[in-house]
Design goal:
The complex is a heterodimer of chains A (about 110) and B (about 350).
Chain A lengths: L2 E4 L8 E7 L3 H12 L4 E7 L7 E8 L5 H44 L1
Antiparallel strand pairs in A: 1-2, 2-4, 3-4
Helix pairs in contact in A: 1-2
Chain B lengths: L3 H4 L5 H8 E4 L4 E2 L21 H7 L1 E7 L3 E7 L3 H13 L3 E12 L5 H9 L3 E2 L20 E8 L1 E3 L2 E3 L2 E3 L4 E2 L7 H4 L14 H4 L6 E2 L5 E4 L5 E11 L10 E14 L6 H10 L4 E3 L5 E3 L6 H10 L3 H4 L2 E16 L5 H22 L1
Antiparallel strand pairs in B: 1-2, 1-18, 3-4, 4-18, 5-14, 6-12, 7-11, 7-14, 8-9, 10-13, 15-18, 16-17
Helix pairs in contact in B: 4-11
Classes of the chains: A alpha+beta (about 110), B alpha+beta (about 350).
Family (chain A): Belongs to the archaeal Rpo11/eukaryotic RPB11/RPC19 RNA polymerase subunit family.
Main location (chain A): nucleus
Keywords (chain A): DNA-directed RNA polymerase, Nucleus, Transcription
């Protein structure tokens, strides 16, 4: 659903504002976190121009080693990796909890 | 916490504490932000950039409570940006199915059509959203995007008793064959939906394709009054309208910690603390003051915060919260179990990033 628009398309731009349609703080703030974690990004911030417009402006400026688009692509990859790993950890934790609950139930039944 | 040592970046102790903890004071909290910039510790030659391997070894999830409706778990080792994104997705972007169009045939109750329709919309329906497509505005309703319910009640008097004087959610009848008024509703099914009901085994005693709760009072009737209507439910998300939100609420709080800064607590201070927060503060066998796990004494924490106003107490006690330890609670409306909701939230976050990357 997201529609990204770069003001200037070429890959050699080091400062770019990305307009992401149909997204809000949920994605923009997560990306801002990962972009800030990138040592080649010198500035990153986002704004929502108006609450009734469904879009965010994400500003990315790099130190010149990589292009802004590359930085954003990396941030997307990092976010994907993080959510994938969180998902598998969560599933393991739920499974462990279910097993614990089952054991507890069995113990209670045995005691009765 | 077990991971404490591992996560430490080799910063001086006071900086490390500012990095990992919010320091709670009587009127203001200090060091509330997270240090996210990759270069923030560069003068100390410490790398703060994103490191997937470190994230993998730090992330811990521990489920404390899990049932069909409520779940509480500890999410340790993530930034508030991620935890908050997940919370926001749970509230506003995990899809469910709810009543969207109501076709009134007859309504002689005192409740206006639009008020009754609004109430119907808010009834949680146990319909698996995975089985349906989103219905676009220009799309005609069909078996792929619409679930049809019928409500047909008339209140009558039987001796001194009233029949059907309360209209409740269990009176909503599912119509697997589709609308009975295809001319008016333009809803035509080419095939029935009966196969969408899960097998007896999968149902686990729950009624599917029906309201989650049977006893939601929709309206009341007097003898002679009746309601006849057809309600069409479609798939949607909480961002469009809260009726599609799959959670009653979802929230997190940071793990609280109370620490004693010294072994020798003056007797007057010890007495004040023991009186204010018994259980949180205890006396060891040797008579010295000790503090137990703050998490289990949340009622006392605000009292401790107020006491920090006094200089003598602020010198021996610190009240702080871990910035990367979230106690996450999900209260489902009952449509989907809370663990499924969180899994879906994570995959929605993943898909958002993927879709954006594909557009770049």
């Amino acid at each position: 659903m997201a529609q990204a628009m770069e003001e200037d398309v070429p890959d050699q731009f080091f400062g770019t504002t990305f307009q992401i349609d149909e997204e809000d703080h949920t994605l923009a703030n997560s990306l801002r976190f990962f972009l800030n974690k990138n040592p080649h990004v010198s500035f990153c911030g986002y704004s929502m121009p108006h609450p009734s417009e469904e879009l965010v402006n994400l500003r990315v400026q790099t130190s010149g080693r990589i292009s802004a688009s590359k930085a954003l692509r990396t941030a997307c990859e990092d976010l994907k990796d993080a959510s994938n790993h969180t998902l598998s950890t969560f599933q393991k934790a739920v499974k462990a909890k279910r097993e614990r609950d089952q054991q507890q139930q069995q113990q209670q039944q045995q005691q009765q | 916490m077990g991971g404490d040592k591992k996560r430490s970046k080799g910063l001086p102790e006071y900086l490390e504490l500012q990095r990992t903890h919010v320091h709670c004071g009587p009127d203001v909290n200090k060091h509330t932000t997270t240090f996210t910039s990759a270069n923030v510790f560069e003068p100390l030659c410490i790398d703060n950039s994103w490191n997937l391997e470190a994230f993998k070894s730090d992330l811990q999830i521990e489920v404390n409570h899990l049932d069909d409706e409520v779940m509480e778990f500890d999410l340790i080792g993530v930034d508030p940006a991620i935890a908050n994104a997940l919370r926001r997705i749970l509230l506003a972007e995990v899809p469910t199915v709810a009543i969207e169009h109501v076709f009134m045939i007859n309504n002689t109750s005192i409740m206006q059509d639009e008020v009754l329709s609004h109430r119907l919309g808010l009834v949680p329906l146990r319909v698996d959203p995975k089985l349906f497509d989103f219905k676009l505005a220009e799309e005609a309703p069909s078996e792929k995007n619409t679930v049809v319910f019928k409500l047909d009640v008339r209140c009558t008097r039987q001796g001194t008793r009233l029949i059907n004087d309360k209209v409740t959610s269990n009176m909503l009848q599912w119509m697997p064959a589709g609308s009975q008024l295809p001319e008016e509703t333009s809803c035509r099914f080419t095939q029935g939906q009966a196969h969408l009901v899960p097998s007896q085994q999968e149902q686990k005693g729950k009624k599917f394709m029906a309201p989650v709760h049977e006893d939601i009072l929709l309206t009341k009737l007097r003898p002679g009054q009746c309601i006849q209507l057809e309600a069409h439910a479609v798939k949607g998300i909480g961002k469009t309208h809260a009726k599609w939100s799959p959670v009653a609420t979802a929230w997190y709080k940071l793990l609280p910690e109370v620490v004693l800064l010294t072994d020798d607590v003056p007797e007057s201070v010890a007495k004040t603390l023991l009186d204010a927060a018994p259980g949180l503060f205890v006396r060891k066998p040797d008579g010295k003051l000790a503090v137990t796990n703050a998490r289990h004494h949340e009622k006392h924490l605000e009292k401790v915060r107020v006491l920090l106003d006094q200089e003598a107490i602020a010198q021996v006690v610190q009240y702080r919260k871990r910035k990367d330890h979230f106690i996450f609670t999900i209260e489902s409306t009952g449509i989907l179990p809370p663990d499924v909701l969180f899994e879906q939230a994570l995959s929605i976050l993943h898909d958002k990033a993927e879709q954006l990357a594909n557009k770049l």
